[in-house]
Amino acid sequence: MKKLFAFVFTALLFSVSVARADVDSAKAEQFIKNVTTQGIEELINSDVSEKVRQERFTKLFNQDLDLDFIGKFVLGRYWRTATPKQRDEFIDVYRKLNIQTWSQRFNEFKGRHFEFIGTEKSKSADQLFINTQVPMNEGNPASVKWRVKDTDGALRIVDIIIENVSLAQTARSEYTSYIQKSPDGVDGLIKDLKARLK
């Protein structure tokens, strides 16, 4: 009897965890649908000035991307040795640079719509990949993969991967290499990123 009870209890736990995973996948996909349709597509197809578009992208990125989380990741081990002032300055300039870069990059999809092609598990239990593609005039559709993190029920984007090129991984490789070579370390990187903004 005890064995039967244990089996039933385990089966119930398993079914609950599976159901919870399904709900999380659906919730994450709906989150990205809202970001793409009500955010990106609406922005890039709107007839507004570049200044207004930048302002709206700033609001979108601050709301839906966890740039603090991404910033810590891209600095890697240098985040641990950076001073509080360096961390604040880096996150600030990294946020502005990403808003500028990705608002321009997404302009390539003007007049087009994101198509959803399912989800994909991540090695991290609290993260999930949402796979989308954007049909282009020529060649294959452009692949856009979104890495979504769930923190106590709050969903945020922690990486965007376009045509297999990761925003976070690319920045991490570039920035850590720069710091290693720069005599000014993290300060040198911050100065360089500020120059790119100008």
Explain this structure to me?
The protein has 198 residues and is α+β, with helices and mostly antiparallel strands. The protein has one domain: Tgt2/MlaC (Nuclear Transport Factor 2, Chain: A, Roll). 62% of the residues lie in helices and 18% in strands. The protein is built from seven helices and five strands. It has helices spanning 2-44, 50-64, 67-75, 77-81, 84-105, 167-181, 185-197; strands at residues 115-121, 127-134, 142-151, 154-162, 165-166. Strands 1-2-3-4-5 form a five-stranded antiparallel β-sheet. A hairpin with a 2-residue loop joins strand 4 and strand 5. The longest helix has 43 residues, at 2-44. The chain is globular.
Q: In one word, what is the shape?
A: globular
- Low-pLDDT parts are 1-23
Order of helices and strands: HHHHHEEEEEHH
Q: Considering the protein shown, what is the CATH homologous superfamily?
A: Tgt2/MlaC
Number of helices: 7
Q: Summarize model confidence as the mean pLDDT.
A: 83
Radius of gyration: 20 Å
Number of strands: 5
The neighbouring-strand order within the major sheet is 1-2-3-4-5
Main β-sheet description: 5 strands, antiparallel
The assigned structural class equals alpha+beta
Helix percentage:
55-70%
Strand content: 15-25%
The CATH class assignment is Alpha Beta
